[in-house]
Specification:
There is one protein chain. The chain is rod-shaped. The relative contact order is 0.14. The protein is mainly alpha-helical. It has one helix spanning 10-61; strands at 84-89, 102-107. It has one domain. The chain has one helix and two strands. The chain has a two-stranded antiparallel sheet with strand order 1-2.
Length: 120
């Protein structure tokens, strides 16, 4: 049997919803930063992998390749989640492809809010 009150009032429900909204608004930026750092770590790992593949290519072919995709390193130019795109910077003056190479990972989409920007 209910005496004076049998449930929750609309005001109590609204207060709970406001508290949940405030907590979510505080937690969301921290989570997004954590996710960006994880994607950055994945991109750095891919850069290291491509450097090793480039060195292996040079051992096999006596020169570096200018192609990340098919016919070169045979790797995709973007991460699986689409947060970074990879490129091979070829500068004939300071760094000819015969003797050196520079890979870059450029953030795209939501990852552009990352503080590191382009990594290379």
């Amino acid at each position: 049997m209910c005496s004076a009150q049998c449930g929750i009032t609309l005001i109590e429900l609204l207060v709970v919803m406001v508290v949940i909204g405030i907590l979510a608004s505080l937690a969301m930026p921290a989570y997004q930063q954590y996710a960006r750092e994880g994607r950055r770590s994945d991109a750095l790992q891919r850069l290291s992998e491509m450097v090793a593949l480039q060195e292996q290519f040079r051992l096999n072919n006596k020169t570096y390749t200018a192609n990340i995709g098919a016919g070169g390193l045979n790797r995709p130019v973007t991460t699986e989640d689409g947060s970074y795109t990879f490129s091979l910077v070829v500068s004939s003056d300071a760094c000819p492809l015969v003797s050196c190479f520079v890979f870059e990972a450029t953030p795209i989409g939501a990852q552009t809010a990352d503080m590191c920007g382009i990594m290379g």
